[in-house]
Amino acid sequence: MAEPAPTAAATAPAAGAPSAVLVEAVTKRFTLRHAHSIKNMSIRALRREPLRERFTALDEVSLDVAIGESVALLGVNGSGKSTLLKIISGVLPPDGGRVRVRGRLAGLIEVGAGLHPDLTGRENIFLNGAILGMDRAETLAKYDAIVEFADIGRFLDQPVRFYSSGMFMRLAFSIAAHTDPDVFLIDEVLAVGDPLFREKCIQRLGEYKASGRTMVIVAHDVTLLRSLCTRGVFLENGRVLWDGDIDTAADLLVTKRRERRAAARAAR
Ligand SMILES: Nc1ncnc2c1ncn2[C@@H]1O[C@H](COP(=O)(O)OP(=O)(O)OP(=O)(O)O)[C@@H](O)[C@H]1O
């Protein structure tokens, strides 16, 4: 497949549409440590190899998501999708550039994000609700709906460290979804859990979209992304390779995965 022209072809928000998420030239670097033992360190030092190196996970990434838009972030493993979501959510600070978010933000960016393992499901609803911006009265008003949606039954009064990964995710998703965020950031959470709950989540996200909320979603499931998003941003090595229609972004993902597999086979 011919590679699409980079971001120039972007279907960025229509001129004048207010931004819900504005990412401006964001750069993020991590330090990679190569030596984790004294022996290893000595060997590398003798060979005059560096013990650590700076690695650029995001390289001047810019993104303008309009209010009411649903945007998918795609890319092969390690391309920077989760790092970008973490920076948008404020969990990670960028090393360069800046991010602005308008309205209430809820992020499901790590499995069990925001849930405290030693607290019960019930306690976590109040704690996590508060972290996501709900006061006690709002959490109380939504409590029954959160519990019903999460469907964790008698486990509600158990510490969440005893939950299965599916139950963990159901509770985290339910709390976040009931905060009524203006901007919802979702990273791969729908890969966890049973198919029925997944359907329920997808339906909920569809309702979100229909009500004009903003979503930025990372998932490896292209069918899911196509059903929720019309715009796809494809990242490669921490750069935006494509920002435009979801179909082109999804085709790029298929092509890049194929290329990766072929390169891995050739290297064997
Ligand atoms: N805390 C960290 N320290 C060092 N390197 C990191 C850290 N977090 C991420 N990285 C590296 O940054 C790069 C981008 O990671 P990121 O998790 O954002 O990719 P991704 O596109 O979400 O990948 P995946 O699809 O596998 O989840 C990867 O090479 C990863 O190893």
TrEMBL record:
Signal peptide: none
Single GO MF descriptor: ATP binding
InterPro entries: AAA+_ATPase (IPR003593), ABC_transporter-like_ATP-bd (IPR003439), ABC_transporter-like_CS (IPR017871), ABC_transpr_TagH-like (IPR015860), Bact_Polysacc_Export_ATP-bd (IPR050683), P-loop_NTPase (IPR027417)
Claim: Cell membrane is one of the keywords in the record: no
SUPFAM superfamilies: P-loop containing nucleoside triphosphate hydrolases
Location of the ABC transporter domain: 38-262
The organism's place on the tree of life at top rank: Bacteria
Keyword Nucleotide-binding assigned: yes
Entry keywords, A to Z: ATP-binding, Nucleotide-binding, Transport
Protein family membership: Belongs to the ABC transporter superfamily.
The name this protein goes by in its record: ABC transporter ATP-binding protein
